[in-house]
Amino acid sequence: MKKIMGLLLTVVLVMGLFVGCGSKNKETEPTGGKDNNQVSDEGKDSTEDVSTDKPKVGVTIYKFDDNFMTYTRNAMTSAAEGNAELIMNDSQNNQSVQNDQVDVMISKGVDSLVINLVDPGAAPTIADKAKAAGIPVIFINKEYPDGTDKIDYDKSWYVGTQSKESGDIQGKLVAEAWKEHPEWDRNGDGKMQYVMIMGEPGHPDAEARTKYSVEYIKSEGIEVDELEKQTGMWDATKGKELMTTWLGKEGDKIEMVLCNNDGMALGVVEALKADGYFSDDKFMPVVGVDAIPEALDLIQGDIMLGTVLNDPLNQGRVSIEMAINAALDKDVLEGLDFQLDETKAVRIPYQPITKDNLGIAKEAYGME
């Protein structure tokens, strides 16, 4: 009996020790967890001081795999370095996705927004979200068709280009080259037979480049015949597919290829190469817009005729610097050598690019 009582006493002591150790661990872990997940008033104030110096800027890009917007996005990242925290989103070319991303960023407490719209017509909806939260918003590259000044929010601005200008410049570049190369008129009928690959339907840049490039060519006294015109959605693969189809249908009737952007022009060049162009003196003039480095290489190699510089570095930089200024309640243009026009827009100028002035575009892309 004594042995049994002694054994029971030992078990009780051991269990007591185990429970005591367990209680100690249980007490330490939750306390530590609470301390890690809660911020004291002092700590919270310190965090707010840091965020005042480096505001949080929420960014959405209509789709990451767009050639031009990739360079613009990189410029944004460089401009924000040491000056702001960026929250970057790929809207995957879906306006509903973009709307949800804006809601999430607002809930995370961003101090300003930079929006590359999927649908330019959605600008008022995004502005209403920003206005309700008291957050300034900078639209970039895709402009609300009625003008940013028509949006009912005083803390909304636009950074981009004047769409018509890119069409005019592309048309001028083509007209001058056509007059210098009468051999491009293959059938000798005195007319330019061309095909046009357009950007996204309804996009202000696509609409303007399609219209004004041809209007400028005709204003120079050049007669034209439009053989084909389709949207390539800014995409190189679609540009290649369209050009391959047209070569099979139109053959050497095509005398000029006009592209709303360089991305699609790259695809066109691939299709032309597969058809034997750019070797044995078989040439097809191709023009684009944006002056991305890949296109500059093709111009250097006498493959593309030319392009139009659509400056991504300044668009990206200016949009972020404006967003930082607005977040800190400063003049939105403080420290910037730009002005707002009557539509509350900062206009980044276009420039024609050929082999004769590649250095301008290379400098704009930080290649020199």
From TrEMBL:
Keywords: Calcium, Metal-binding, Periplasm, Signal, Sugar transport, Transport. One of its GO terms (molecular function) is carbohydrate binding. InterPro entries: Bact_Solute-Bind_Prot2 (IPR050555), MglB-like_PBP1 (IPR044085), Peripla_BP_I (IPR028082), SBP_2_dom (IPR025997). Residues 24-52 are annotated as: Disordered. One of its GO terms (cellular component) is outer membrane-bounded periplasmic space. Residues 57-328 form the Periplasmic binding protein domain. This is D-galactose/methyl-galactoside binding periplasmic protein MglB. The keyword Zinc does not apply. SUPFAM superfamilies: Periplasmic binding protein-like I. The ABC transporter complex is composed of one ATP-binding protein (MglA), two transmembrane proteins (MglC) and a solute-binding protein (MglB). The keyword Chaperone does not apply. It is found in: Cell envelope. Pfam families: Peripla_BP_4 (PF13407). Residues 41-52 have a biased composition (Basic and acidic residues).
